[in-house]
Amino acid sequence: MSWRSFEHALDRWFPAGTNPLRHLGALACLALALLLTTGAWLFAVYDSSVAGAHPSVSALAAQPLAGGLVRGLHRYAGDALLIFVWLHLLREWALGRHRLFRRATWWTGLPLLPFLYIVAIGGFWLAWDRLAQYAAIASAQWLDTLPLVGGGFARQFDLEVPDRLFSLLLFVHTGVALLVVFALWFHLQRLARPALWPPRALALGTLGVLLALALLWPVRSGPPAELGSAPLIASFDWWLLHLLPLADATPTLAWLAVVAMLALLALAPLWPRAPAASAAVVDAENCNGCGRCVDDCPYVAVSLVTRTGGDALAVVDADLCAACGLCAGACPSATPFRSNTRLISGIDLPGSTVDALRLRLRAQLAARPAAVVVYACERGAGPSTDVAGVDCVWLPLACVGQLPPAFVDYALRQGATGVVVAACEACEFRLGERYARERLAGLREPRLRARVPTQRWRIVRAAEGEERQLTEVIDGLRRARG
Amino acid sequence: MYSWRALIGQTLLYAAFAAAIGIGSWWPPYQHLAPGRALVKLSMVHHGERLGECVALTPEELAQLPPNMRAPTRCPRERAPVTVEVDIDGAPAIRRSAQPSGLARDGAAVLHERLEVAAGAHRIGVRMRDRAGEEGFGYSLDTDVTLAPAEILVVDFDAETRRIVLR
Ligand code: HEM
Ligand code: SF4
Ligand code: SF4
């Protein structure tokens, strides 16, 4: 069973784009935001001394609605975060989204994993109950087995534990948590407008689950740590602490497993080699330096430079370019109404130019006058026989965001009965469908001219396999014209 | 607004999510020490003796050194490894030797070993050698202990009294 079919199965339960599998990065951000807010609260009440640590945490149970809830949320949001992050990684990998222009995002995501584990394990030390004692000693023993560390961490717990140890533990937990935030900022550098927040229904559902857990299954401290005897642990958080039993059993193998896992993930984008589509190219003569392509590029691949004359000029970093064409869809010089024999956009995809699109449109409309024109994302519903019925002109695009909106107007002027812009099920380039909708609705530059009658065009989402629904939309436009 | 199927499906998924977190975060308990067992921890951070004595330099040797480094004696910094043997009830249980830390091998040797034993009475023998070329062991301790279940007995070296101690 492929990841896609798994996602499709869940789409039936989560309509209107609320499928959690499509928002794992955003769900991870939600969990992280919860951790930071509840963490700030806990930081304020925590006593970082040997004698004070356990009482200051276990006292939270006395106020179940404030402290208890905060502690429960903190713990369960931590569990949820690790689950979301692993699923997020698995999904990006399963969909092949770790390569090419996404490489940097993948690589900057990786350090988040060790950071999260350090924060998670470090968090358990702070409660200084029996579980904390186990977590502290097990991780210290594991660290001691590293070459060059010199050993001696675990010995700390064979002596009297000094107060400053708790200041250190608190510093590790909160310091690395801030490092996570910084690393996340880094992770998102190559993504324009990353989706940091899940759709409301999903955010509320997730929050509801975590709140319910915190209320019904409150997190309580065990008996205080006692260094003279080995802790018998009543309960164990396998989501956050699973590395420790492995490290107990076989510390060297555990280190090797961690290193091998990280190395494998780090090397994954390099092999097997994937062919890159040709990057967008700027034509200096047709670029007026307006900067719309810079605004709309989802992968921050375009920037403006100053030409010798002082005007601005767009330049593309080919390594970062996804060949999505959103920049061509944004460029004012890509309008098909220009009278040149060859339509040259300020920025365009060499493999699929707006000029080629205009030529195909003209040729096909000449062959089938009064057809309905379908500008379709090549990942979505395909031109199966029932769609490619008589009066339909099918023009595939890298992404619906590649379409300069004037092409809708232009097709109608050329005699088309109607125009359908058909997006795929979930934009491969994250922002293409959104931009296409905003441009057609006149909410984003370049806007579709307001005088184009709205009953003559539609923008729809039609996944592969949804050809029938698409046909209905086409038929609807045809019927409306009589 | 949601269909029945969607409502049931979502409820199921949220419930599964809650159950996964709720259960995985508490259960199953992890027993890293079986019931009725106790721990003996060998835990020492000890400086072995220097490998060699300080030697006086001859006037010729001194003359070859830069003026600011003309100390009359040269003392080797490297220390001997520290070797510890622990026997439980007469049977060898731990045999460990640790090199001094530091690039110049002049730091303390760190020994940290964990040994599980049955709770109850044991005779425990500890021997330590911290001198190079020594045949036997410079320090030793032989004693009876009674360990409660889960009790941790730490075997250490007290640098002040220069004795092996149990804590
Ligand atoms: C705290 C942990 C993490 C958080 C909060 C997080 C969050 C996010 C967010 C919000 C996005 C943008 C999604 C969008 O706009 O649609 C994203 C994208 C991405 N993440 Fe993460 N991430 C984390 C860890 C990781 C890890 C460990 C990896 C893999 C090594 C990873 C790989 C990726 C990739 C490849 C993308 C690009 C997706 C695309 O271009 O379509 N992330 N992440
Ligand atoms: S095709 Fe254009 S919008 Fe898309 S990534 Fe490349 S430069 Fe950016
Ligand atoms: S949108 Fe077109 S004209 Fe504007 S800066 Fe980009 S390439 Fe130049």
Which stretches of chain B are poorly predicted, pLDDT < 50 over at least 5 residues? none
Q: What kind of assembly state do the chains in view correspond to?
A: heterodimer
The total count of helices of chain B amounts to 2
Mean pLDDT of chain A: 93
Structural class of chain B: alpha+beta
**CATH architecture assignment name of the largest domain in chain B:** Sandwich
How confident overall, as mean pLDDT of chain B?
A: 88
Shape of chain A: elongated
Alpha-carbon Rg of chain B, integer: 28 Å
Number of domains of chain B: 2
How are strands sequenced across the largest beta sheet of chain A?
A: 6-5-7-8
Distinct ligands, ions and cofactors found in the model: protoporphyrin IX containing FE, iron/sulfur cluster
Counting DSSP E segments of at least 2 residues, the number of strands of chain A comes to: 8
What does this structure look like?
- The complex is a heterodimer of chains A (482) and B (167).
- Chain A is built from 18 helices and eight strands.
- Chain A has 482 residues and is of the alpha/beta class.
- Chain A folds into two domains: 3-270, Cytochrome Bc1 Complex, Chain C (Up-down Bundle); 281-480, no CATH class.
- In chain A, the strands form three sheets. Chain A has a four-stranded parallel beta sheet, with helices on both faces.
- In chain A, helix 17 links the parallel strand 7 and strand 8.
- Chain A is elongated.
- Chain B has 167 residues and is α+β, with helices and mostly antiparallel strands.
- Chain B has two domains: 1-30; 37-50 and 80-166, Immunoglobulin-like, CATH 2.60.40.
- Helix content of chain B is 16%, strand content 41%.
- Chain B is built from two helices and ten strands; from the N terminus they run H-E-E-H-E-E-E-E-E-E-E-E.
- Chain B has helices spanning 4-24, 59-64, and strands at residues 37-46, 55-56, 73-74, 82-88, 91-98, 109-118, 120-129, 139-147, 152-158, 163-166.
- A four-stranded mixed beta sheet of chain B has the order 6-1-9-10, with no helix packed on it. A four-stranded antiparallel beta sheet of chain B has the order 5-4-7-8, with no helix packed on it.
- In chain B, strand 4 and strand 5 form a beta hairpin.
- The chains are: A alpha/beta (482), B alpha+beta (167).
- The interface between A and B is large, with 46 and 43 residues.
- Bound molecules: protoporphyrin IX containing FE (HEM) and iron/sulfur cluster (SF4) (2 copies).
- Residues 25-26, 28-29, 32, 85, 88-89, 92, 97-98, 102, 105-106, 109-110, 112-113, 184, 187, 191, 194-196, 265, 430 of chain A line the site of protoporphyrin IX containing FE.
